[in-house]
Here is the input.
Amino acid sequence: MRDERQLAQKTATELETPVKRARELAEKLGLRPYPVNYWIVDHDEMNELIAYSGFQRRYPHWRWGMAYDRQRKQDQFGMGKAFEIVNNDNPSHAFLQESNTHADQKAVITHVEAHADFFANNAWFGLYSDRGDPGQPNAAAMLEQHAAAIDRYMNDPEIDRADVERLIDAVLCLEDTIDQHRPLLAEADPEDRDLSDIRDQLDELGLSDDVRQNVFDDAWIEAHEDAAAELTLDDPERDVLAYLRDHGLAYDNSQQKAVERESWATDVIDRLREEAYYFAAQKMTKIMNEGWAAYWESLMMGDERFAGTDEFITYADHQARVLGSPGLNPYKLGKELWEHIENTTNRKEVVDKLLRVEGITWRNFHDAIDFSVVEERLQPDPLVAGLTASDIDELLQRIESNDDRFDAERVEAAAAGELDLDRYPWATLTYTGLSERHFSLTRRHNRQFVSQISREALEREARYMFDDERYETIEAALADINYTSGWDRMREIRASHNDVTFIDSFLTPEFVSSHNYFTYEYSQATGDYRVASIDPADVKRKLLLQFTNFGKPTIAVYDGNFDNRGELLLGHRYNGVALNEKQAHAVLERVFELWGRPVNLMTIRVEYDEHELEVARRRGREPNGTEVGVRFRYDGSEVTEHDLEYHLQEAIEATDVDYDTKPDEWLA
Here is the structure.
């Protein structure tokens, strides 16, 4: 144990300088991250933290042990190595595995700094901030309080531990059925309060018996409780957990009927629902967040040589493994989208200037411009591009002339021997200087990006351009380039988007074509998967459907008194992707635990005629299925299947192309 502590201390000491320099570089690059506390942990501790979603204490439940075992086996059998974990908090806490190489540790640190910036500045994370101090999350304290409260219930002799565990199982099964677009904080508004607890509210008012009997009698209360539960087919309740909390009962096996839920049970539901809202932002921004971190990690480690000469090969292997992971890789897709945004923004800046040159229009753009001259003129100032210690005299001259690309304070520190300019040349540059040093269109693989712009894009650019500046030469136009445009735009997008809006807005046909994206789907005719389409619209459509509602089916409450029998009616917002019916049946059993009465689920399945299937196989085409509405009902003992009335089927069918709906043509 003593040797392990000494190793951890040694690793921590070695990383003090990289941590300090990484923060300085991140801020130079325009990032504004939360403070980050770094912790060195061993292999087992890392697996425990991953199982606990990055926190050191969670409520007692078997899911954590299962997650730990899965992570341990994944590591043991070479299916993926855990390099780090960082949580959304202020300050953020990042855990580094002590067995990582020094190069890996530095890669992780730069990656974490970018994550901490995303946590601090993305609006979707801001929605789930700590209730007591909006904008300043205190997740560790919140989760600690929840763990302690649920642990007390588990150990309360008056409460059956199995009942607590069963309730947690039921809530976790529904943890993604919240309305992730509505901040939890909104419930603090008195006008948004639910009336289901109206009896308790009247008790708190201390009204006289006369007033209670003559004004707020049982009939009045029941009428308002019913009103609170009233829903319409056009406006279902998306926050299923909140509805079950407010209107659900508990089923008493001994009495064979629904009874009032114990207060501890409602408290557990509330706590787990709050945690679901906290973790929702991470699920909603996986592509953006991981891509953002991968982008800045790559720039810092590679382009700015944060990885030393003896570490670069190890780092390159590290990043290749991360970006080369199979399947839908959020690191790769996210990083490529951010780079595409940077490139298109920078191209727009360059094209805007070139279209202002006398004699150049969108019609003759490709013929009138010598793009080798453009490429040459976009290259950064040699001093900005290749700073070394031998340039100190010229650096001093630049700051005397107030060149805003250089940081006067850090240049003077380098001149005084307090900064290793050969090792940290970026330290003497400002954000403006760094943006010129790393202007994306000067990179070898992007040098044709300006010349490859389409005539349609040029015409659009010219159409909305104000004729307020003109240049006599290409050289004069390019001397006026704003090199910060790409990074500025990236930060604007980072502040306001989630994965769905990010993909919808920036996954362009040009991006899909240049990165060779395609869709694939299961073939009913052949019984395997096949490429379905390379059309950019289909690629975007499938990705949007995959990321809507965390990639889970969208379920809403349509009626709390179905058929006037006190039954719950849930609806699956059908978007062309059918439910796994076996799993749906299991979920209904969990919902019953929270409703206490029979529960129903509406959905649509696709049925195939055997003859049609056979014909399709012979002709090498996909069969045409028939969409059939069905309703599953669970009464506490068995699941039964029923036909779905046409008006109910219409209510759950999606017809428009939006985040929750069915495309007009599903994957062509």
Summary: The first helix runs from residue 2 to 28.
